Amino acid sequence: MKMNKHYPVRYQFVDADGIRVFYREAGDRARPTLLLLHGFASSSHQFRELIPLLADKFHLVAPDLPGFGFTEVPAQRNYRYRFDSFGETLTAFVDALALKSYALYVFDYGAPAGLRLALHYPERMTGLVSQNGNAYLEGLGDAWEPIRAYWADPSAENRQIVHDAVLNLEGIRWQYLHGVKTPESVAPEAYHLDTLLLERPGNKEIQLDLFLDYANNLPRYPEFQAFFRQTQLPALVIWGEHDPFFIPPGAHAWKRDNPNAVVELLDTGHFALETHVEHIALRIREVLGDEQSQ
Predict the structure, then answer these.
(1) Fewer CB within 10 Å: C terminus or N terminus of the chain?
(2) Cα–Cα distance, 61 to 93 (Å, whole number)
(3) How many Å apart are CA 39 and CA 209, to the nearest integer?
(4) For a pLDDT cut of 90, what percent of the chain falls above it?
(5) CA angle at 207 for the pair 136 and 96, rounded to the nearest 5°
(6) What angle separates helix 156-166 from helix 169-177, to the nearest 10 degrees?
(7) Would residue 270 show up in a list of annotated catalytic residues for this protein?
(8) Is the peptide bond before 281 cis (omega within 30 degrees of 0)?
(9) What rounded mean pLDDT belongs to the chain?
(10) Mean per-residue pLDDT for 91-105?
(11) Which listed residue (45, 59, 242, 270) is catalytic?
(12) What does DSSP assign to residue 70?
C-alpha cells in the first residue's frame, strides 16, 4: 500500500462550543468520513502518518481536544476540563463541520470522549475502530494504580505523585516506548512535542483534572457496551498488547457485546501507530468495507 500524494492534509480551525478547534483534514468530503480522536498526551499529530495512507478512500478529520495540541480555549470560556465537556465539544465540532455520517477511530482519551458523541448521535455512526481505546473495567492495567489512589484520595500529595510520574519528558517518553521492541522506530519529535505543549501555562493542572475525572468514565462503560450490543457496527479492535494502561482483556471484552468485532493484538505498546501504522491502515480498509483497498 503506497501513500497517495494527491490528497494533501489541510490544517484548519473551526469555532465550536466557544472554542477555536484545530483539526487536520484530508480526502474528498464525498467519501465516507473517519473521525480520528487522539489520546493523552498527544493530539491529532499522532495521526500524521495514518491520514495519508487512507485519504484516497476516506474523508479524514482529526481534531485536537481542548487542552491538547493547537486547539485554543479562551480564558473567558471558563471551560471545565472533563470528559462530559469533551463529548459536548465534539458534538459541537461535528455540527460545525456538518458531518452527518462517520466512523470513529478512538484511542485512549478519545474513547470515552468519542463514545459520548456516539451516544448523542447514534444514527450518524457507521463503524468503530478502537486502538487501545477502552470501554471495559477489565481493560484497565496496573499502570493506573497511582491514578486510582488519586481517585480514592484526591489530596495534594496524591496529585503531586501523579504529576511527578507522568507530566514530564521521561513520563511521556516511557508511554511511547514501553513494550516496543524497536524503540529506534519511534520518532522522538512525537513525545517531545507532547512534552513541550504540556509546559503551556496552566496545562499541567488541566491534565491533573482530567486524570481525576477519568474515574467518571467507568460508570459510563455499561452505556457504551449497550451501544455496541444495540448497533452491532463494523468494529476493528486493534491494540498494542504491551500497553500497561489498557491491557488485552479490554480488547477481547468487545466480543461479548459485538461478536462480529475483529479483535487483533499487535506486538507493540500504547502508541501502536508509531510502529504499525501501515498494518493498521490496511486493517481499517478491510474492516470498514473498502473493497478497493488492495
Answers:
(1) C
(2) 11
(3) 15
(4) 96
(5) 80
(6) 60
(7) yes
(8) no
(9) 95
(10) 98
(11) 270
(12) T
Residue with cell 471545565: 80
The pLDDT tens digits of the residues spanning 272-286 come to 999 999 999 999 999
CA dihedral over 10, 126, 137, 177, signed as positive or negative: negative
At residue 272, what are phi and psi to the nearest 5 degrees? Answer: -65, -25
16 CB contacts (<8 Å, ≥6 apart)? 89, 92, 93, 95, 96
- Distances from the Cα of 114 to the Cα of 12, 151, 154, 181, 199, angstroms: 20, 22, 26, 30, 26
Length of the chain in residues, anyone?
294
Dump pLDDT digits (tens) for 27-74: 999 999 999 999 999 999 999 999 999 999 999 999 999 999 999 999
pLDDT-based confidence at 290, cuts 50/70/90? low
Rounded Cα gap, residues 127 and 284, in angstroms:
10
Fill in the DSSP letter of residue 167: S
> What confidence score (pLDDT) does residue 289 get?
72
Backbone φ/ψ region at 267: left (φ over 0), alpha (ψ -120 to 50), beta: beta
DSSP codes, 196-231 = HHHTSTTHHHHHHHHHHHGGGGGGGHHHHHHHHHHH
What does the block give as the cell for 155?
Answer: 489530596
Q: What is the mean pLDDT of residues 192-211?
A: 97
End-to-end CA, the chain = 7
